[in-house]
Task: inverse folding
């Protein structure tokens, strides 16, 4: 596949997935960038994501990272799911913080893949580091109706 | 500490944390059981937790497991945070499914601890297995106002 | 399969694997117990396993745990390999220490499985906690020559 | 610290650690490169590292990766240990294969750090991906006798 075609495929896959991803939408995420094996997502920490001390619940740090991982591993045209993930919490995020998660493919082998995701504050400080394990189901992401 | 006192301390810590945990409340979680080093949480998969195929976003499986982990590791009176976690997704959950996450302490050493959490369907089938790494901050969870 | 047959199958699989496992033998491991989904292995920390301070290199703690994991997940008659693992080092082991690794199956699903392994000192203190991810290749472990 | 001084410190730390690391030496490892937060180690798969099928035991893939991780995280002058690690096995290695493990620091925060290690065949194919979690003990690696 020509590089331009690979980028276009990645974008069309992302658009199709995003349209159906109520969860990421409901969390106020924005898909900022997608390319083959890569995706960047932004999210602001809301008041329903924090505990009593105003600190973001770890699950929402996982949520933004997991979504970036999901978009990155679904850029090749075949439906791919998360088999598992490992996350390390580096520093906390607080109410109102703007977070950015950047996912990059590390390696693919057979139907499996590894993706590294870094969640950062807008100023670059690392909030969390996630490594996701993907498994490709093999069925197509796009249908005849997902654009021409 | 006498066993009864340890159970009472666990309950008071959980009550104090739950009161401030807007995130777990907003996700519709119910804290069903707490004991020293253990906690059980229930949650129903809502329509804002699923993707276009009606399958629960992995981050919400992590959310229920992470909350059970958090309550389990905060039963000894000292504020304890998640340092990281590893999760394996075993089967999917769908819109309307009732999930139960049961966290058990595996080992504590120094300020660190490991907690195993199993997320199950109500019929017992395993949905996800999480292992959480905790770190104790050392400051008290309860204040003079958290009950007598 | 009757329980007795499952235990007998586990033992025959272990015997066949052990015969070819030069690595575990060369590390001085002893297979102490095997049952369906379970295995226990013992090993003494030798002087070629330690660093200059007499502390066992983490890789040998992984080695005993990984071997226990391998024997535990190969008890059902089909060749099964490690897809990955996560380990937490709890305390150190030193030259001459006798270690015991006990592996237990946590869950199997499709061709995948999770196994928890605890490495302990002989007095019960935890040295390391490992969680292994297995993948079943499907081909038989035993051949016509592996006993009657 | 000037960049040259940081590189010199890294080399002196590595030399001091290597001198005492009987385990890495006994496994036939060679420390090929070290720099602040980075290390590269080579190792050939020997006949006491394989099982009956000539496939390298996973623990030795962890061993080379763990050693690269250890040298990379001990380049700043303070003794640092492995708190845990996660590894994914990508492809197998066989008797006689030459392996190279390259460790790079991902992030440091407080006394903790994350290091990514890729183990490759000499032709570049990935064998395993490891992420190590380090903890700095704070005591100096070098003593007055470790060079001038």
Result:
């Amino acid at each position: 596949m020509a590089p331009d075609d690979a980028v276009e495929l990645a974008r069309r896959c992302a658009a199709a997935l995003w349209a159906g991803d109520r969860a990421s939408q409901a969390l106020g995420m924005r898909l900022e960038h997608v390319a083959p094996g890569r995706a960047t997502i932004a999210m602001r920490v809301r008041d329903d994501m924090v505990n009593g001390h105003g600190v973001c619940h770890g699950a929402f740090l996982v949520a933004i990272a997991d979504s970036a991982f999901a978009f990155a591993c679904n850029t090749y045209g075949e439906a791919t799911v998360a088999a598992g993930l490992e996350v390390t919490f580096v520093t906390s995020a607080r109410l109102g913080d703007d977070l950015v998660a950047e996912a990059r493919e590390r390696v693919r082998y057979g139907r499996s893949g590894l993706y590294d995701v870094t969640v950062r504050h807008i100023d670059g400080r690392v909030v969390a580091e996630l490594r996701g394990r993907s498994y490709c189901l093999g069925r197509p992401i796009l249908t005849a109706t997902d654009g021409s």
Remarks:
- Chain B is about 25% helix and 40% strand.
- The interface with chain C takes residues 86, 88, 90-91, 106-107, 109, 114, 116, 126, 129, 131, 133 of chain B (CB under 8 Å).
- The mean pLDDT of chain B is 94.
- The two ends of chain B are 17 Å apart (CA to CA).
